[in-house]
DNA sequence: AACATTTGACCCCC
DNA sequence: GGGGGTCAAATGTT
């Protein structure tokens, strides 16, 4: 029991190994490509799609691993409760939007009937020295000055809260001025299907039989995901905003989305755009100590 | 016109 | 009663 790898750990190891192998394949392709002379058309038509597919698989491994981390209360205790696509889709029917009276809080009938999230445990938390895209489309629904904070806290919900009942929310709190430090706290899990780029959602190939937890967009449409510094916009053309009092500075980000871009997404985008932008700073950290399992305990 | 953000007010829980 | 989270009308942007 003690030194025996838990199921969760094993699953993560498998994912990482898978990712490593796929990355090796990708490397071989790239090396081979550089050592041979192909026409541009050949490269475009054969190598790139394959390379892209491999890169996606690498990303998928990373995302699965991270999600495994996110969905286990304690990685070491062997409790494995992955949130599969089927699992989440089964709760799509306004799962967390209905209060005890059965009133969907997203409806107009639910005026002033609110359920606070503040007593729910955060799903996970991330600190970063900058505000970045995390691949999801968020909509800001409020901001507030809190007692123990020097800066405004911004509240975001998934843009598909009402059309798909996605319960995911996040709070962005600037915690430090110099150097700038932001804490993004995520609540709930996405059960929406189109928050990420629709093209590759829930790709079935996945090189594995296992449940696909999350599929990251690796095909950012240029018109939607433009490079801006080291970040991307995941929302409609929005003004580069400045959060009043909170981060009116360096974050040239759409206000709805100055969220945190997971490293793997950023890496891949750098790859895709063949533009080596600056990587996230080393001050970025993910805190998994606040992971509370996979339950959609939003309204519970 | 459609959609996103801002912001004051409301409401729940501690 | 106060703090925090959310709503929704007003406003801004494209």
Task: Provide an overview of this structure.
- It is a single chain.
- This protein is α+β, with helices and mostly antiparallel strands.
- The protein folds into 2 domains: 71 residues; 218 residues, no CATH class.
- The chain is built from 4 helices and 10 strands.
- The strands form 3 sheets. It has a 6-stranded antiparallel sheet, with no helix packed on it.
- A hairpin with a 2-residue loop joins β6 and β7.
- α1 packs antiparallel against α2.
- It is elongated and about 60 Å long.
- The chain starts with 6 loop residues before the first helix and ends in a 13-residue tail after the last strand.
- The N terminus and C terminus are likely disordered.
- It binds a DNA duplex (14 and 14 nucleotides) through β2 and β3.
SSE inventory with pairings:
Blueprint: H1 7-35, H2 40-71, H3 85-89, E1 124-128, E2 138-145, E3 152-158, E4 169-176, E5 181-187, E6 227-228, E7 231-232, E8 240-241, E9 253-254, H4 263-272, E10 285-287
Antiparallel strand pairs: 1-5, 1-10, 2-3, 3-4, 4-5, 6-7, 8-9
Helix pairs in contact: 1-2, 2-4
The structure holds a DNA duplex (14 and 14 nucleotides).
Keywords: DNA-binding, Nucleus, Transcription, Transcription regulation
InterPro entries: WRKY_dom, WRKY_dom_sf, WRKY_plant
Subcellular location: Nucleus
